[in-house]
Amino acid sequence: QVQLVESGGGLVQPGGSLRLSCAPSGFSFSTYVMSWYRQAPGKERELVATITSGGSTNYADSVKGRFTISRDNAKNTVLLQMNSLKPEDTAVYYCNAYHTGLRINYWGQGTRVTVSS
Fold first, then answer.
1. pLDDT in tens, 20-59
2. Residue 23's closest CA among 79, 67, 69?
3. Which of 13, 34, 59, 93 minimizes the number of CB atoms within 10 Å of its CB?
4. Residue 38 CB neighbours (<10 A)
């Protein structure tokens, strides 16, 4: 019943932009911390950006000033606006929902982002 469906990935040139979308369903989305993670080839999964139920955001140092996470609880969407993309941003990006009380995670299947000339 619980689903997190990502979309918006693709191929983009360095300096370009992409917007990733996450569509949660099957749980109380508004009460969860929502995050974007990414995993590049040969590297560990890393936290990219987080937004709390109250709208507080946090970002990995590598993406600060370039990426923006947002949520629209009414529309059941979480977005990751990615600007000034760099080749090192190439990765599979995963949407995550975390309940701090229940301490459970829900994960999407991922969407691939490739930044290359």
1. 999 999 999 899 999 999 999 999 999 999 999 999 999 9
2. 79
3. 13
4. 24
